[in-house]
Design brief:
248 residues; Rossmann fold; 6-stranded mixed sheet; 10 strands; 26% strand; binds adenosine-5'-diphosphate; binds magnesium ion
């Protein structure tokens, strides 16, 4: 049986209106499919369109043209309310700056997305505790985010992302605010979640070293996909692929 892709993008274009009139096109005919269980890095230099692409994948923004299906559902023309529901149900977000509520303890932070699901309190508690122990923070329930290291904060954010049992974890530069030791820890953790629990991960990064933790790289340059395949032995393969766009 053919499995339903988690993400299917067909010729996605995105333009932003310019204040002086006209528009700036940022994404050009982006097409790719991501299947359940994959660990994919979307890589490219600053300004290449990674965050724009991630916002579309995450149903935070919509494409100007093209078709985007999330888990078989065409969400191209959905309204903001419907998109919010889809986000909550299908996607766990991990951001560079953790986005935790600073005045709530970490148990509350992990429970929060479950509230929108209408789950009873005891189930929310049980689920949040399970997720905190998955990221080895079961002894820190009552701590505030400010009392934790950056690496621990990101683990809380991962527990929160996983709590709603999403189809997809979407991480934008998840190690960008961490030193390399803590960053490696988080990347190894992603690897483990993917390998052992089969969780699908899409990670945005501008660094090859970080992308290397994934099993597949989609390289974006000037809003176009220039490489899509296994992680190459070294970065030069990706840099060379940029020539396709430069020559245009
Ligand atoms: N909301 C927006 N309005 C206008 N231009 C934008 C907006 N978001 C991004 N851009 C432009 O799109 C291009 C790609 O940006 P972005 O997707 O943030 O790249 P990256 O994440 O790879 O650094 C940049 O030229 C940026 O200025
Ligand atoms: Mg960005």
């Amino acid at each position: 049986m053919k499995q339903t892709p988690i993400i299917s993008m067909k010729k996605i274009c995105k333009s932003f209106p310019l204040e002086i009139g006209g528009e700036q096109q940022v994404l050009f005919d982006i097409s790719f499919t991501i299947n359940p269980g994959e660990f994919v890095a979307i890589m490219g230099p600053s300004g290449s369109g990674k965050s724009t692409c991630m916002n579309i994948i995450g149903a935070l923004d919509s494409a100007t043209s093209g078709i985007y299906e999330l888990y078989g559902k065409d969400i191209t023309t959905m309204l903001p309310d419907e998109l919010a529901k889809i986000r909550n149900e299908y996607i766990g977000f991990v951001f560079q700056n953790f986005n935790l509520l600073p005045k709530r303890n970490i148990l509350d932070n992990v429970m929060l997305p479950l509230m929108y699901r209408g789950l009873p309190m005891n189930e929310r508690l049980e689920r949040a505790r399970e997720m905190l122990s998955l990221v080895n923070l079961e002894n820190f329930e009552t701590y505030l985010p400010t009392q934790l290291s950056g690496g621990m904060k990101q683990r809380v954010a991962i527990a929160r992302a996983l709590a709603g049992d999403p189809k997809l974890i979407l991480a934008d530069e998840p190690t960008g605010a961490l030193d390399s030791k803590m960053g490696n820890e988080i990347l190894k953790f992603f690897k483990k979640l993917n390998k052992e629990l089969g969780i699908t991960i899409v990670m945005i990064t501008h660094e090859f070293e970080i992308a290397s933790y994934a099993n597949r790289v989609i390289h974006i340059y000037d809003g176009r996909v220039t490489y899509d395949g296994p992680v190459p032995k070294n970065e030069s393969v990706l840099l060379k692929s940029e020539q396709k766009v430069r020559k245009k």
